[in-house]
Amino acid sequence: SSSPTVSESKGFPIAMLRRAWSGRRESRAQARITVDNAPAPRVDERPVTRQRPLVSRRPDSGERSLQSKDMPTVQLPVPVTTTSSTVVPVRVVTREDIEQWSLPSISILASPPAGSHEPGIDQEATSKLIETTLGDYGIEVRVSEVKPGPVVTMFGLVPGWVRRSREVRERTSEGKSVVDERGKPVVRRVEDNTRVKVDSIVAREKDLALALAAPSLRIEAPIPGASLVGIEVPNPRPTVVTLRSVMETEVFHALGSKSKLALALGMGTGGEVAAADLSRMPHLLIAGSTGSGKSVCINSVIASIIMHNSPWETRMLLIDPKRVELTPYNGIPHLLAPVIVEVEVAVQMLKGMIQEMLRRYKVFEGAGARNIDGYNKNRPVEDRMPLLVIAVDELADLMMSAPYDIERSIIRLAQLGRATGIHLVVATQRPSVDVVTGLIKANFPSRISFAVASQVDSRTILDSVGAEKLLGRGDMLFQPSDTPKPKRIQGAFISDREVEAIVRYWQNQKGPLPPKIFLDIEESGKALGMQNGEMGDKLLEKAWDLATQYNRMSTSLLQRRLRIGYPRAARLMDLLEEEGVVGPGEGGKSRDVLVARGSRRQDQEG
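Below the sequence we write its predicted structure tokens.
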């Protein structure tokens, strides 16, 4: 017989689909009964197996002679039989196995450019120009300190005196005026000197910018810890701060010896090294407009972590809705899963991370530990829990697609994740109140702001103004949780070639991986009503009935009519596509319904 046309296939009876679906479930159930009732396998037979996570297997004596000593341990799936009589040896990972992972050398990063230590501004001429300009307006100052930085130079001003004089009559002890020989009262001149007000210096910011021919100035009044007023003047010849130049300093080495999550942020306005400890922050919120250096900052944070940690010490979960910033890290052993680019998958993974956090708390309760440091303190390396770092490159895109689920998951992890070793690094280019909500700000005390468009955005991210005057290209304000005022830093730059070199280094290494952490694979299946990879009958029945009432279907329609979340609605739509009820998706658009309208009702009546 000839094959049916496309128009005929859209109107096939719903009973055929129902019988095919029921037959497939019966065949699966019959297969399970056959396996359960099967006799115990002989030695020369392969037992019925089901997959478990990859576990390292120690080669026996015959295999060991064929392998070289330098060959890494091969990751093989260990079969687990359904019968209790079969015993499978399990590979026990030792310290020697973990030490197969070697950390990359600092030489893999690019060296600082030549002339990076030369001052980018004429310090003496600029100091005299500042004193002269303010003196023209009757403000006496003296430049007492100059701190050259890579992009801006800090000039520390000592406020002078406001000099006033007045005439005072000489009087006797009795209070009478003293007169001279001509009978005129004797007067003397008295000077009343008062300090120059700091507000008067701040009020001349635009006049200083005009005299110095600077695009913008930032006045810090006063400098924390000093009796000076700081004026940050942009350098005509800015220098690039490389990631290697920060990591090679003693300050970063001292911080890295105490913490596994030391971050190389950059250099301050005075040329001092800016490094931070993510475990003490304990979470980091980054905001800035497009092209201000936000994505480069995330790359430097990730590179700082994977340069000093093996997969047994730190694992990472990267979420990149833009698909281009973090995807180059695919393939490194630190990742819990490939870089996530879909919103619905990101929602499931964040919920799975919450399940992992709660599981760790139960383990701590049984071990009598209060946090991950106490749990790992006296344990061997192979039994320690790794730190978990979650990096999100664009929070605004996630909040637009699933605001409730994303905000709830991020806040829950930020509130309770520190004790279990879970830390978040979240970035957004739109620091508005609907993206950076009050609850998110309350749980992210450490923040970084790059150049933003207005004072409103600066207040949203930092609760203070100043970010609107930044120069861009890595110029940022870092607000740690333990300081009252933000600190200006030129961010460390890492090129795409350096990122590729680091990723290639880790991809070329082969070693035993730590136990797999299941994020939202089993737990989310129970939460969504799935069993053995299929959705519950009731919810699928409702979705099927709803599909027969429309010509086109979408995930948002399932959300509204069935009152379910996006992940569950997306899974239902995939199942309907597998059953032939709806057509394939086309980039978020609604799908064609392949079942004739009312065919389900006719099938039930028949």
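The chain has a mean pLDDT of 80.
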